[in-house]
Automatic annotation (TrEMBL), chain A:
<protein>
    <submittedName>
        <fullName>ABC transporter permease</fullName>
    </submittedName>
</protein>
<comment type="similarity">
    <text>Belongs to the binding-protein-dependent transport system permease family.</text>
</comment>
<feature type="transmembrane region" description="Helical">
    <location>
        <begin position="199"/>
        <end position="224"/>
    </location>
</feature>
<keyword id="KW-1133">Transmembrane helix</keyword>
<feature type="transmembrane region" description="Helical">
    <location>
        <begin position="150"/>
        <end position="169"/>
    </location>
</feature>
<keyword id="KW-0472">Membrane</keyword>
<feature type="transmembrane region" description="Helical">
    <location>
        <begin position="244"/>
        <end position="264"/>
    </location>
</feature>
<keyword id="KW-0812">Transmembrane</keyword>
<feature type="domain" description="ABC transmembrane type-1">
    <location>
        <begin position="80"/>
        <end position="268"/>
    </location>
</feature>
<dbReference type="GO" id="GO:0005886">
    <property type="term" value="C:plasma membrane"/>
</dbReference>
<keyword id="KW-1003">Cell membrane</keyword>
<feature type="transmembrane region" description="Helical">
    <location>
        <begin position="91"/>
        <end position="110"/>
    </location>
</feature>
<feature type="transmembrane region" description="Helical">
    <location>
        <begin position="32"/>
        <end position="50"/>
    </location>
</feature>
<feature type="compositionally biased region" description="Basic and acidic residues">
    <location>
        <begin position="1"/>
        <end position="12"/>
    </location>
</feature>
<dbReference type="Pfam" id="PF00528">
    <property type="entry name" value="BPD_transp_1"/>
</dbReference>
<dbReference type="InterPro" id="IPR000515">
    <property type="entry name" value="MetI-like"/>
</dbReference>
<feature type="transmembrane region" description="Helical">
    <location>
        <begin position="122"/>
        <end position="144"/>
    </location>
</feature>
Length: 283, 276
């Protein structure tokens, strides 16, 4: 194996490794770099050949190769892209509305103590309602079109964001607020200079959960009643016993979620860069 | 040398009556805390103190004697119960723009660069940006942080962060600099070094300083006068003038005269049964 020479080397000193050996040392320090793909390959291979060996019916559990085939078929179909577009639209619109409303309401609530104390019990109570169960109601109210799914996505991404905004605005360090006070800062200045930046890491946590929830909300809405979208396509493939096709849609939904997650992480690293850094350097 | 940095002139007009000899005036100051459903605690009792413009005064006392409370009242953070507090002729009822403060922790904002951190007071008080950028740059040079403007706080050591905190406290050219155990969190070596640095900064910027510390040698080394507070309720036990020549080097602390000052201040604590 190519890695044996690395293993035989003496333990690393604190000096940073010279550029040439850097990648191999990285693999040793962060085994997940090769463990993650390895697990993937092993699982897919086991799935592929295990199902063949045990003669599992493709109607029950299609093989990975069949899923890839189905995926290729769908990606070549313009109708599939229009389903994808519909669901993306619903999820994104709902996400923006839900998250935006949560930021506004959360900011308002946390400014006034009485309002916060009055509304908090309701927010907590509402949070325990399984929002997915509201989907039939929304379809009834807003019809089979885009609106009911947007509402579903908005409602479901609203609550995690709201809780994070309130928690985040509350998380501002008292010493920093006192520092600004000594220099004569007004309430608005304190909000802008300390409270809001302090809340950013929380807001990003809310965005991260929110975007995944929004996709979930859109798909669930489509389950209840829709003529297009990936949720509709899931049901269609299911009815037609096209289980490989169904898995292909699931793969697409996962990729959507992953992409959204990475975009938000990227934004977070640029806009709330200190949060990670301080965690690493500080306590 | 005091000039390059002071030259911009004080921006607020002082009432004509303010004497340079009573730049800070504390008269008959009382502070009581009234916790709900229990007896009031007397934190400070009958504090009388006058500080000259440009003077360096330290406040020492055992833990809980109210020295930080005194500083918070001067900063306008904590209301007084009785008496009068004036800074540069202005009654202190809320934080005054004439005051700069250095805290026990550097308390820099992690999402701002060092330079933007230093500009915080100027930004809050909406002062002329260009003029204060220049001053911030001069202050950075004064504390030896030139070249670190674009760095973020976590990229600096504790001592460097505290120096940035000092720059921030001075950027709006305050009439008074308040320091609340500013070097308490630093290791002994860095602390001594920062003491020497602080004297140099003070000499060049000419600010009036009130410093709270629990280190008697630090107070003796830095100050023109040391205010010794008694244990709760905090009263002024003695005000000790420190007549060591300036500029001072660390070596002055091993001299007999410095030793005499340290012993004299410490005797107050020993007499009160508290050893710091």
């Amino acid at each position: 194996m190519a890695t044996t020479d690395v293993v035989d080397k003496p333990p690393r000193t604190d000096a940073s490794p010279p550029g040439g050996t850097r990648r191999r040392l990285d693999l040793r320090e962060r085994p997940q770099l090769w463990l993650v793909p390895t697990v993937f390959v092993v699982v897919v291979l086991a799935w592929e050949y295990g199902t063949q060996l045990l003669e599992v019916d493709a109607y029950v559990l299609p093989r990975p190769s069949q899923i890839v085939e189905a995926l290729q078929r769908q990606l070549g179909d313009p109708q599939f892209w229009s389903h994808l577009w519909v669901t993306s639209q619903e999820a994104l619109l709902g996400f923006v509305i839900g998250v935006g409303a949560a930021v506004l309401l959360g900011t308002f609530i946390s400014q006034i103590k009485v309002v916060e104390a009055t509304l908090m019990p309701y927010i907590v109570a509402f949070q325990t309602v399984p929002k997915v169960a509201l989907a039939p109601l929304f379809v009834l109210w807003f019809g089979f079109g885009l609106t009911s799914k947007v509402v579903m996505a908005a409602v479901i991404s609203f609550f995690p964001m709201l809780v994070n905004v309130i928690e985040g605005l509350r998380a501002a360090d008292a010493d920093r607020i006192q520092m600004l006070t000594v220099f004569g800062a007004s309430k608005t200045q304190i909000f802008r200079m300390v409270r809001l930046p302090s809340a950013l890491p929380f807001i990003f946590a809310g965005l991260d959960i929110g975007i995944v929830f929004a996709i979930l909300g859109a798909v669930v809405g489509e389950f209840i009643g829709a003529k297009e979208g990936l949720g509709y396509l899931l049901l269609q493939t299911n009815y037609n016993f096209d289980i490989a096709g169904m898995f292909a849609v699931l793969v697409v939904l996962s990729v959507m979620g992953l992409l959204a997650h990475f975009v938000i992480r990227l934004l977070q690293r640029r806009l709330a860069f200190w949060a990670e850094e301080t965690k690493v350097i500080g306590a | 040398m005091r000039m390059a940095i002071k030259a911009m002139g004080r921006r607020m007009q002082q009432p004509a009556a303010v004497s340079e000899d009573s730049w800070i005036e504390v008269v008959g100051l009382d502070k009581r805390y009234q916790p709900r459903r229990s007896a009031p605690t007397q934190a400070l009792s009958d504090i009388n103190l006058t500080v000259r413009r440009g003077e360096f005064v330290s406040v020492v006392g055992p833990s809980g004697c109210g020295k930080t409370t005194l500083l918070k009242i001067l900063a306008g953070l904590s209301p007084k119960t009785d008496g009068a507090v004036r800074i540069a002729g202005r009654e202190v009822t809320k934080p005054l723009p004439e005051v700069g403060m250095v805290f026990q922790a550097p308390t820099l904002l992690p999402w701002r660069t060092i330079f933007d951190n230093i500009m915080v007071p100027a930004e809050i008080q909406k002062l002329d940006r260009d003029k204060h950028r220049e001053r911030a740059q001069q202050l950075l040079e004064l504390v030896g942080l030139t070249g670190f403007e674009r760095k973020y706080p976590h990229e600096l050591s504790g001592g460097m962060q505290q120096r940035a905190g000092i720059c921030r406290a001075l950027v709006h050219d305050p009439a008074v600099l308040l320091m609340d155990e500013p070097f308490g969190a630093l290791d002994a070596m860095t602390r001594e070094y920062m003491n020497v640095e602080l004297l140099r900064i003070w000499r060049e910027s000419g600010q009036t300083v009130v410093l709270v510390t629990h280190s008697i040698p630090e107070a003796v080394f830095l100050s023109d006068r040391v205010v010794v507070l008694s244990p709760r309720p905090g009263r002024i036990a003695e005000i000790v003038p420190i007549e060591l020549e300036r500029p001072r080097e660390l070596s002055v602390m091993s001299s007999d005269r410095a030793g005499v000052y340290v012993d004299r201040i410490r005797s107050h604590f020993n007499a009160a049964g508290v050893i710091d």
